[in-house]
Amino acid sequence: MVSMMISKSVDFYNEITPLSGTVMMVANLLVIAPVAEEIAFREIVYTRVEKTTNAVTAIIVSSVLFGLMHFVAGGFLLVTGAALMALVFGYIFYKFKSLWVCIIAHAVANLPDFILYNKPDISGGIFWGLVIFFACVFIAGVCVIHKTNRSVSFII
Predict the structure, then answer these.
(1) Does 154 reside within a domain?
(2) Hey, is 101 helix, strand or coil?
(3) Nearest of 110, 75, 93 to residue 154 by alpha carbon
């Protein structure tokens, strides 16, 4: 869920200039964080660890580091959730050899935070319906990307 730190930051900037905090949150949650974190943890950490060990070790190491990076934003609960999601991202990176697919997966994984910030009173059924919808959109996106370009990846 959206951390208190993000929520306070959005509210602060929205008071200065209406909607500026919300725009920055959208840019961060759906573009900046997915791109930067996937480059750092999949393209750099995963790739380098895999060169000296194997894919399983690379997935685990990059996932643990990804989770730990989220400690300040949300404590142990966010670390655990982020590490589990990173296991999925790591597997996706291994399977598709595409950083783009991981970036899309990461942005989709961040969508519930945006929804909950803007609609904190949303019911559980609607929330989980949206999560399932976003998961389906993600799976469809993975299939399209996989069919159209099997080797899309950033090179660092």
Answers:
(1) no
(2) helix
(3) 93
Answer yes or no: is 156 within a domain. Answer: no
Q: Residue 70 has what DSSP assignment?
A: T
Q: What is residue 152's predicted lDDT score, i.e. its pLDDT?
A: 46
- Asked if residue 8 is part of any domain, the answer here is yes
> Residue type at 26?
V
**Cα separation, 90 vs 145, whole angstroms:** 17
Number of independent structural domains in the chain? 1
Q: Which residues contact 45 (CB under 8 A, 6 or more apart)?
A: 58, 61, 62, 65
Q: What is the DSSP secondary structure assignment for residue 10, as one 8-state letter?
A: H
155 belongs to a structural domain: no
Is the pLDDT at 153 greater than 60, yes or no? no
Residue 150 has phi, psi (to 5 degrees) of -85, -5
Range of the domain at 28: 4-148
% helix, strand, coil for the chain, step of 5: 85, 0, 15
Between CA 127 and CA 75 the distance in angstroms is: 23
The pLDDT of residue 67 is above 90: yes
